[in-house]
Amino acid sequence: MINDSVIMQKLFIFLFNNYILSFIFVGVIAINVWMYFGVGGIHDIKYVSGGKNIPDTQLYQSTDNLNNLLSKYGSQGKLYYLRYQYRDYIYPFFYGLLLMGILFRLIKPTGFNVWVFVPVLAAFFDYIENYFLRICFYDYPNLIDTKVMMASVATSLKWFFIALSFVLIIIAYINRRKKYIARNKIKNQRPNTYTS
Questions:
Q1: pLDDT per residue of the chain (196 residues) written in tens, 0 to 9
Q2: Is residue 126 within 8 Å of residue 110, measured between CB atoms?
């Protein structure tokens, strides 16, 4: 009987083959361009708000900071951000899969490996952040501290797990290179059994 870890590994091998992983990578790039330059994107938000960025990029958000940001946005900036958020509901799915795929390809786990799933946590908290920020935008100007705090915690955790994913990718890559160098070294040290 095939156990769950074998089924999961086969699924990941199929899901993260060269073609699908390349498609996911192109998807991440395309969504980034759409999020920035599309109608109601970051470019438009900055234009109407005097250069202010989106709250998603902040590591920490207080009620005062968010209140000040929304006052700079005005009604048009608020409308743009709510429109922008629809794209941000697609983006975490794509970048989560991409980071997960890279980790899987570098680590090559033989069974369940918790590190491969770290990007899933980043995407999960990104969705939580989006949910609470959307509520805060609808609540404005009567922002509720608890909701702002939930959005802020989710944002901080999102960035923590994204950063951790990149650290894991670097570590996995270094370990992969070390194994590759060690394997080649052993191969080159084998005595030549052929005689002339």
A1: 456 667 777 778 777 888 999 999 999 999 999 999 999 999 999 999 999 999 999 888 899 999 999 999 999 999 999 999 999 999 999 999 999 999 999 998 877 889 999 999 999 999 999 999 999 999 999 999 999 999 999 999 999 999 999 999 999 999 988 888 887 777 777 665 555 4
A2: no
**HSE-up (13 A, CA, CB side) for residue 51:** 0
Whose CA is closest to 12, among 90, 116, 94? 116
**What is the C-alpha separation between 49 and 43, in angstroms, rounded?**
10
Report the distance separating Cα 167 and Cα 127, nearest Å.
22
Residue 109: other Cβ atoms inside 10 A: 16
User: For residues 177 and 113, what is the distance between their CA atoms, to the nearest angstrom?
Assistant: 20
Rounded-to-integer distance, Cα 105 and Cα 115, Å: 12
Helix (H) or strand (E) holding 104: helix 91-107
CA–CA separation, 146 vs 132, rounded Å?
Answer: 10
Tell me the pTM. Answer: 0.87
